[in-house]
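Bumping my old thread because nobody answered last time. Still need a sequence for this structure:
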């Protein structure tokens, strides 16, 4: 019993990992709408860095190094980036070094409401593209896929991003939004959704009980890959940093790597 408890404690401690986070979580996502040119396409996704919190400069450098080692085609950022706006440039400067082939795209989280203008300026300065209720095309030969992003995923009464209605109905569409609740509340027509915000609960009693979930849907979209009522696949990351209390227990921080595969 003591061995099991010790192992769980170690797995929840990012400082023991050479990645700068607790784990690198891989998903293979298969879809019949995926064009041939995107078979094997690799996407890196991180969210909720809350830099520095417990996520200090050393861990940031390890995180950036591991992301570069993964050599993603595309990198997505899910919001809640820093604990104070004075760290914005330092963070985005480090992340820009990953230099994925098709760029870095981001949305804002709830913490960016306090320093929205500063966040936008920092992103622009380091070539991070903000998706604000917009849809972009990503091209390969042959084929095109679409990426949409929600400016404020907590305002459900605002213009809902329904990217599949803006493009060919047979197109492959991804959606980036800070909270997974948006995907369910909006009945999104996207094929694959990337979200964060929940931190996976950040603290859990061996996965059996999670006191704080930061989602209106209980455990349904707390972490991992799940499906909305409308059929969209939602990946909710446990995030990188910590919020409120600087502790993680039984909920490792993570980098998410998604490889798109033809069906």
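Sorry it took so long. Here it is:
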């Amino acid at each position: 019993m003591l061995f099991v408890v010790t192992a769980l404690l170690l797995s929840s401690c990012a400082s023991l990992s050479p990645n700068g986070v607790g784990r690198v979580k891989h998903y293979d996502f298969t879809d019949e709408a995926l064009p041939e040119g995107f078979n094997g396409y690799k996407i890196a996704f991180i969210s909720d860095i809350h830099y520095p919190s417990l996520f200090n400069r050393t861990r940031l450098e390890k995180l950036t190094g591991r992301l570069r080692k993964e050599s993603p085609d595309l990198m997505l950022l899910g919001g809640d980036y820093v604990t104070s706006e004075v760290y914005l440039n330092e963070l985005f400067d480090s992340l820009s070094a990953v230099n994925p082939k098709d760029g870095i795209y981001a949305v804002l989280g709830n913490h960016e409401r306090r320093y929205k203008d500063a966040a936008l300026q920092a992103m622009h300065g380091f070539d991070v593209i903000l998706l604000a209720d917009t849809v972009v095309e990503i091209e390969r030969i042959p084929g095109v896929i679409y990426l949409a992003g929600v400016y404020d995923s907590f305002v459900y009464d605002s213009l809902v991003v329904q990217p599949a209605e803006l493009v060919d109905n047979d197109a492959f569409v991804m959606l980036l939004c800070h909270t997974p609740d948006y995907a369910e509340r909006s009945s999104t027509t996207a094929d694959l959704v990337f979200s964060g915000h929940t931190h996976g609960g950040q603290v859990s009693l061996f996965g059996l009980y999670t006191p704080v979930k930061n989602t209106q849907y209980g455990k349904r979209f707390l972490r991992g890959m799940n499906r909305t009522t409308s059929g969209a696949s939602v990946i909710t990351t446990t995030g990188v940093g910590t919020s409120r209390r600087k502790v993680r227990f039984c909920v490792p921080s993570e980098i998410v790597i998604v490889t798109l595969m033809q069906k």
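The CA atoms of residues 151 and 249 lie 31 Å apart. Let me know if any region looks off to you.
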